[in-house]
Amino acid sequence: MNQRPKPGEDEDDLLKLQQQFLDSGGSQRSSVSIKRPDKRKTLGLEQDSRDVVNMEGVQIGADPECPVKKLKFKEGQACVSEGKAGVGRPVVEETMEDLELAMDGKDSSVAAVLTSIIERDTRREVCAAPRLGTQAFPSVKTISISALQKEGKQRKKKSLFAQQVEVQGPEHFGVDCSLRRAPFREVRKITCEDDSSRERKVGSSGSRIIDGTGLNLSNKRAEVEQIHQENSEKLASMSEQEILEEQQKLLDMIDPKLVEFIRKKKTVRSSIDKDLGGPSSTSESFSVVKERKRIEKHSVDVVSESDLPIKPSKTWVHMDTVEKEKLEWLRDLPPPPSANSAGTGHPARFDFEGNVLAVDVDIPVKMGLHHHGDEPERAGYTLEEIFQLSRSSNLQQRCLALHTLAKIISKAKSGQLSDKVQSPIVPAILDGGVLMLLRWGLDDTAAAVVAAAVDALHALLWNPLDEAGLEMMWSWYQGDVASALTPTATLEKEGRPEELDEENQEEETDADVARRDVVQALVLRMDLLVRFRYILDSMRPQADTVIKMLQILARLAQHSASVAYEIVKCPGLMDKIVKEFVPTSWSVKVVTGPISDLYGVPVPAAVKLLRVLCQAGRNLASGLVAKYSVKLFLLRFVSVEASQLQLPEREAADLQIESLALWRTCAAYGLATDVYFDMYSDVVRHVGQFENHWSSLAPCLNHRGFDTHLVSVLEKVLYIADQSRSKARANSPDRLAAVYEADWSHVTSLAQPLLNCSKKILSDIGTTYPQQKQELYFPTSCINFLASFFGLEGQQSSRDEISSLDRIEQFCSFCLEPFLDCYGFRLIVEYLCPFSNLLVTPAEKSEPTVPPSLPSHGVLLIPEMSVSTSADPSTSASSQHRETSKLNMSILSKHSPFGFLTALFRLVLSLSKRHKQMIPKILTPLVKNKDILMYMRKTCTASNSSPFCNSVFTRAENLLQHTWLKCCVFVPCEDMSVAHRVSLNLLSRLGHGDEHLVHDLITTVIFNQDFICEGAAMTLTSDAMANLSLNDNLHLKSASQEEITTSRSSLLQDVYNSLAKIRGHYLMAFGGMEKAVLQSRNLFMGKPLETSSLLLKCAGESLMPKDWIYLPLIHVYNKAAQSQSASGVSASRQSLEMVTSVLQWTYALEVWRPVEMGQISATVRLSRVLCAFIAGNDLFLEKPVNRYLAGLLREFSDQKVLDKLDFEEKIPGMTSFYDLYQEVLDHYEAVSFGDPVFGLFVLLPLQQRHSSMLRKAVWGERRKMLRTLRIPLTEILIPLQNFLQPEETDYELLYLQLSALSSDAVQSRWSPMLYLIAVHHVNRFLFMAHGTTGEIQTEREIAREQIWKQVIVSNSKEQVKDVVFYKQFNILQERGMDLYEALPPSRQATYNLYTSKFGTSSVSS
């Protein structure tokens, strides 16, 4: 390896290195080569776009006959190909002594280049000497600008010198015109014309098909001529018949499309030859082709002005040549179609504001809404046209299309276009590939296009109505808890176990991920976060774009904790956001209007992004707080007044609100607690001013108020102080390190000011609310603070119990009691029903505007008609009604009472637990309020039919009902059955994160005897006496012929006495939820050190299924199926007790709560009960199980329930009911011992209204089992008519039934029910109406003949007699049927007809 010169070496060292390099022969030179463009390469005939002065006497361009200088590299390559040494690497003799010659031979620097310069050949150049003048100095050339502008108005823009040359000529500048020659372009044109004419002469007799493509250029023409001559001689030697035969062979061999192409080519060439006066050349130069196209373009037929659509004007630009097609666009558009003739089904067209335009709307053309080819008379653009416009090469068109698309998406998501289009717009746009389109827009180099793409992406992801709803609920109980917006398909994919075979596992494409989850596609597949970091760092967009990008990131973080982690770990993204948009020092010159440049200025959207990221999990929040010193931000933004932040008024207020929300979120984890001590004096000052603020600014204290958010933060500080006490008792210093040293003494001083403020608030609301209608957000936060304070104060060991109870008594006596009796409180309670989400009927639900891959919280705008209050009598009736919009969820309305009443219930419950004597004064009036009870009764009647049952905003209503139920535990309401029904409905509505509420309801409410007033002994006795005439006793015989006598009252009495044991079994079955219950309890109890996340799993999914009452039974069934126990192995004692408890509870709910059980499909209920027969081999034979199975059979045998059975519907957790029924039949055949209860359950699916496949499973596949269905007709609980009507039409099933009769598999003495069914259906089929003998026999008649034949030849006389003489069923008869003594004439004729065909029957008439 050659060494390189080093610093400090002298000239001798350099010469030594040079000698070493020469001795090595340059073989170790670097192989890196740089390809540079050839600056000497001519442009050929390409037109120069520069402004060139064209003098007629001066030659422009290179002479085509001059030698062209070649590159050394190409010259060297040519030499190498000829076997010579390449240029730049001459052969150097090793014995060379002259060092300078060797250097010259190897030097490739300036010397080598200068010695290789070749002089241009100027022998053909014409040089003209300048003319001699009479003056000593040349005269000054003047340019007449006015004259040039007058002459050059319609010409191409040129320089002043070029225009002067055109006006005065080259002679004026000293050019001798006598020596000029034709310009190069003219010479080239003449040369091309000569070549073309010469080729035309040669090609006149040449081939029209062979053009020489692929042949050598040197002898191309000779080869073409030789091939053509051989073809001509061959054709001359053939006769016409032979030519036609060969032609036909070729046509059969060649593709017809190729033949058509050759013929078309001949036709086109002939037309060109006709236009140019001869055949075209096969090898034309580019200039000739270009010249021909120019001639064809300008050789337009002269059209008279009368034939033109519009008369052209000379002032029009670029209309020198009149084109009729262009003039068609200048005509007036036809009028839009009328409303009557327009009809429906037209593609929706939108204006630039995103509004759908009516078909008959008449908009002026100058609005720019008619620039499309389809339906030119209609204004607006379709989605396809907007998509096409967004891919335009014009910058303004792309921006306009993207902004229009953003407005369309925004209005479609808000529900404003739902009633104007037939199908949702956003799913159609996503299916059209808008995600890729917007991602490409973000990659654009133009800042305007990037801003437009961000605008459209913001409209697609961000939902301002959802965010406004979440902010409105921030001051409510559990208002800081958010729900993740994860698509259901993504949750199912994450829940499925990974396949072991990774090779055969199909990988999702980007399109598949986008269809499943839009957010995951953007973050994980399209690198949106990296692109956002680049845009913020390099492009520095405007303020509006920055805010939208921050909101997009906040929406991405709401997807799941994993996406939030991706945002935090994206290199440089959060660093850039915090540095530029959450600074602690800034300066703004103008603070009156909006800020155009947000860099270096605190932005509320950036603080909100931090808050959303902190909600995703404790670890993320801890990392963000430590890395970015969040407490400094909070101190800087909150410790001063909003007017001192040097920001516009609105931005300053929003910044403080978002900072307080961030502080509350961090405090929920026990973080940033030291901010409370740093701001303690400011906090105390603010708290002291609350009462004055309420008195003066009560109408202005909305959900975005500073005081409202500050009180919410202080409530979290209470839990931190209480948690530090409990942890100090547990001696865990490692965890206490995460919490600043705070104890209860640090927060007690806040209670009295807030208590005084609350007294003032409740007093004002009670008296002035009907007139002023104050917003209840600040009162809600104050009452929540007091509820938490009094609840936690009772757990403090250092409290003064006497003074505390005295304070509670005074507060209840002088504040709460009067408030509960005032008109303002009654008016708030009356708002429960109008503002309830649970009472929204399904008809009022708006259609979903977003696809499942992009879930939202579902807040929409729905239109409503409002009546104008104008007193002007001249106003028309139509103008007095105007269309407005309202939210589809009434719970988010301005005067919604749910947050305030929930806080009030919590406060009353906390005070009642502390002071028992206050229960009748404050708790009893609240629980027994008639309006509240009416609201609860209406929600029970609705039976969870509302479309918003699983909405995240309905969670506030769920919390209200749960708190009311907890109050009912202390004080029974007037109708406890309503409370119990409320608890059952609530349990099936609670979602993820509410596991604590589920456990609490099961423990304290659902199985509480106080809530089941129907189960009291006196009630059961009175019901039994009242229903004696109804004969509710059930009489059956078991498999051991033991008499089973059960009554509804005795079964229900046993259930009522066993409620505690039933509750224990359900809690045992839900033991797998222990971890989730613990996390949920920590969240509801406000334990900051144990709270892991404020982001719930999923919003639109309930935690418990509707059929949760069967879950323990399904658990036992699955356990038995996994163990695959053989016949003879009994179920365990624990399984027996659990199954008994489930059947008892199910039977009680079927009798006491039929409306709530009606929410579960009858088929699902029957399927779950059937699992009790197959959960163990002899489990159903146990007496307690058998009794309640018999009781459930009686409930399922009701005709209303039977009519609702549909065995074709999909059952959760099962492939189909048919598979379950097959398993039940196998179990019955193996271990039933002919149990009548089991047999009656088997008969339920055999009713005629259900599928014949279920009946074939008994009659065909399990013939032996027919003998074991020994159920007397008198014990059949199901109406017999259901098994006999409608008549059987399945021929195969009829064959099977007749075969069972003929083979004595079914007889009346051991299977009376099945015997009656078979005889009835076979008889009805035999004597059905049939065609005459002269008609063509149908398939039905053929089947009947076959059955008649089998009946006539059968040896079973008794069965055949019953089949032939069957009249009708009668359970009072011995075999359950009436028989004809003599067949009616019509039946006798039918019988005679077939006996004459197949012989005499064994049965005589």
UniProtKB/TrEMBL annotation:
Question: In which residue ranges is the amino acid composition biased (Acidic residues)?
Answer: 499-511
Tree of life domain: Eukaryota
- Could you give a single Gene Ontology term from the biological process aspect? transcription by RNA polymerase II
Which UniProt key words apply to this protein? Answer: Nucleus, Transcription
Describe the location of the RPAP1 C-terminal domain by residue ranges.
348-412
Q: Where is the RPAP1 N-terminal domain?
A: 225-267
Q: Where is this region: Disordered?
A: 22-48, 492-512
> Where found in the cell?
Nucleus
Return the InterPro entries for the record.
Answer: ARM-type_fold, RPAP1/Rba50, RPAP1_C, RPAP1_N, TPR_RPAP1/MINIYO-like
UniProt keyword Isomerase present: no
Q: Please list the residue ranges annotated as the RPAP1/MINIYO-like TPR repeats domain.
A: 1109-1329
Q: Which family does it belong to?
A: Belongs to the RPAP1 family.
Q: What is this protein called?
A: RNA polymerase ii-associated protein 1
Where does this protein come from, organism-wise?
Plakobranchus ocellatus
Its organism's taxonomic lineage begins at: Eukaryota, Metazoa, Spiralia, Lophotrochozoa, Mollusca
